């Protein structure tokens, strides 16, 4: 990986001529995203993120922290003990410059011998699973990082709305993927293109079934304005 997403974050933090990030998926055209959005404060966050932060307590793990906006709110405003992780070394460098006390460049699958009361995965937190078959791997890992009574707060979207309907109201779903929420993502930044990567959007019922299969309770906390939702997973 060229870490272009992280490079955009670090460029913005260091005023190094940041540019928009261009994203494209296997089912959508190119779209531009302002890097400034990743640096939003609490007031600018959508209601799902605000709800997740309001429920966060105890020792916290922020998985895929990006520019660190959620972790900074939890650390500085709620005064919680926060560990933030991201696979992007550039994003981690930016988070350190922003004042996060404990931020590490590490994949959550490689995090061992630590326990947390709340684990948050926001901005389509299921994305890092990549494919539906990887739910087992990630849910078991997240479960192993929970203290007794702990919780996982994770958001995603049901993207069935993005597919065309036939005359009977059925959806035209591509047959080249195991599940319609499995996408491939491409990021372009300052004319350079990142290697394509897998990204998973998962509908709530499918997440709930996966959670139950791995000894986790799953509760629908709130729904957003565009087929998105926040779920809370707890140990059974």
UniProtKB/TrEMBL annotation:
What are the alphabetically sorted keywords of the record? Methyltransferase, S-adenosyl-L-methionine, Transferase
Record GO terms (molecular function): methyltransferase activity
* All copies of domain Methyltransferase, residue ranges: 58-162
| GO biological process terms on file | methylation
Question: Origin, by domain of life?
Answer: Bacteria
Name the InterPro entries for this protein: Methyltranfer_dom (IPR025714), SAM-dependent_MTases_sf (IPR029063)
From the UniProt annotation, give the residues forming the signal peptide.
none
What name appears for this protein in its UniProt entry?
Class I SAM-dependent methyltransferase
**From which organism does this entry originate?**
Flavobacterium alkalisoli
């Amino acid at each position: 990986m060229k870490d272009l997403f992280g490079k955009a974050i670090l460029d913005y933090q260091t005023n190094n001529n940041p540019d928009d990030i261009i994203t494209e998926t296997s089912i959508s055209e190119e779209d531009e995203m302002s890097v400034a959005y990743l640096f939003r404060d609490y007031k600018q966050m959508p209601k799902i993120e605000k709800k997740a932060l309001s429920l966060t307590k105890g020792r916290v793990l922020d998985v895929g922290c990006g520019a660190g906006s959620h972790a900074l709110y939890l650390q500085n405003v709620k005064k919680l003990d926060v560990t933030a992780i991201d696979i992007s070394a550039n994003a981690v460098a930016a988070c350190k410059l922003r004042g996060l006390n404990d931020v590490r460049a590490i994949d959550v699958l490689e995090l061992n011998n630590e326990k947390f009361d709340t684990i948050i995965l926001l901005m389509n937190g299921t994305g890092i699973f990549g494919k539906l078959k990887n739910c087992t791997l990630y849910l078991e890992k997240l479960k192993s990082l929970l203290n007794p009574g702990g919780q996982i707060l994770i958001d995603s979207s049901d993207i069935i709305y993005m597919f065309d309907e036939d005359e009977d109201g059925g959806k035209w779903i591509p047959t080249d993927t195991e599940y319609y929420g499995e996408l491939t993502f491409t990021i372009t930044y300052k004319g350079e293109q990142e290697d394509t990567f897998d990204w998973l959007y998962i509908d709530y019922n499918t997440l709930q079934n996966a959670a139950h299969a791995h000894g986790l309770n799953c509760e629908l906390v709130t729904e957003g304005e565009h087929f998105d939702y926040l779920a809370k997973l707890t140990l059974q």
